[in-house]
Design brief:
Length: about 110
């Protein structure tokens, strides 16, 4: 579609980076654990756009971290400390300025 091409051209153009004090720390979540997920192209594209504009992007990909779907949520650990991988993920999220979620749509 012609509109898509215009948006892609606008986003991939090189623009000057923003001043360091205005750079954002963005966490980009990828919402699929399928080995050959098509959405990987989307999150890499979005990450590239944000990085080209001077922002720091940290990608959270469930295929590369030890995040068992059956674990308790971070806030449910009242008596005991949460597992290290869950605490690390929580710290990353809390220290970010923004979150982007790239999730597949199943038809």
């Amino acid at each position: 579609r012609p509109r898509d091409k215009i948006l892609i051209a606008r986003h991939t153009s090189t623009s000057s980076t923003i001043p360091k004090e205005k750079q954002l720390r963005i966490v980009l979540f990828f919402g699929s654990n399928r080995p050959e997920a098509i959405g990987e192209r989307v999150y890499k594209y979005v990450s590239k756009i944000l990085q080209n504009r001077g922002h720091h992007v940290q990608i959270i990909d469930p295929r590369t971290i030890n995040l068992n779907i059956l674990d308790k949520a971070h806030f449910m650990y009242v008596k005991d400390p949460p597992p290290e991988h869950l605490q690390s993920l929580s710290d990353t999220i809390q220290s970010s300025d923004g979150i982007v979620i790239v999730s597949p749509e199943y038809n």
